[in-house]
Amino acid sequence: MQKTILITGCSSGIGLDAAHGMRARGWRVFASCRQQRDCDRLRAQGFESPRIDYTDAESITKGLAEVLEATGGTLDALFNNGAHGLPGAVEDLPTEGLRLIFEANFFGWHELTRQVIPVMRAQGHGRIVQNSSVLGFVAFPWRGAYVATKYAVEGLTDTLRLELAGTNIKAILIEPGPITSKIRENSIPFFERFVNWENSALREKYESSLLKRLYESSGPDRFELPASAVTKKLAHAVESKRPRARYYVTTPTYIAGYLRRLLPTRTIDRILSDV
Which end of the chain is more exposed for a tag (fewer CB within 10 A), N or C? Predict the structure, then answer.
């Protein structure tokens, strides 16, 4: 029988490439998006596309129900992917902004995962793949909100993996570094809504660093890879008989993982303080 996968955040970037890539590998792909217009666009491309907005619990339940109705109540794999950024110094992040990004990047993932696990327990197998980040295990300046959500995803997934030991359900992390996507562009409205940088004690650093990175296109980041690099790791995670617990993607992720194991925190702080 054709295997099934639900992928979130498929309007662009990693999610969109994963939807096309997994379909090309013979999977039945449910490519969900946050906005209905993106779902309609994907349906025009031949995808089944339920609307799932991680900040809307009702859409999570309805979207999954749509998938399960189509499959007869089964689902082989879930790829939690949809997320957004909220750049800014930690001292300038209002709690309201943190709550919103946690709803989108963490609590919604947890809610969908909790609803999928009983399905996978009933069928006796499943793969839950979480698209984390190199920022799930190292912190970069100006990215505190995003870092916090990814650290949370890593901790929860590691715990889930331990609790699912002895079942045929695997919880897996993918940890990309710089990947071609719209995440920087999509983070600008959240920055403008929540961060009062003009009145920040760090205003000069905003002007010399973060604002240029947000608003001035300088081409791809060094070591940046296309979204297909993530899709390649996703395919291994859901198709291998013995998937890894975590998959690094991009050279910076491998370097960060290596340095984190070898160097003291103070040394890493010096390396990353001006990134």
Answer: N
For the chain, counts of helices (H) and of strands (E): 12, 6
pLDDT in tens, 131-153: 999 999 999 999 999 999 999 99
Q: Please compute the mean of the pLDDT values over residues 26-37 and round it to a whole number.
A: 98
Lowest-confidence pick of 27-31, 126-130, 218-222 = 218-222
169 phi/psi in degrees, rounded to 5: -110, 125
Q: What is the pTM of this model?
A: 0.95
Q: Rounded mean pLDDT of 99-123?
A: 98
CA-to-CA dists, residue 166 to 76, 77, 112, 115, 237, angstroms: 17, 18, 22, 20, 18
Among the listed residues 146, 151, 247, 248, the single catalytic one is: 146
d(CA 273, CA 275): 6
- 92, 200 contact by CB (below 8 A): yes
CA angle 2, 126, 16 (to 5 degrees): 65
Query: Is 215 designated active site?
Result: no
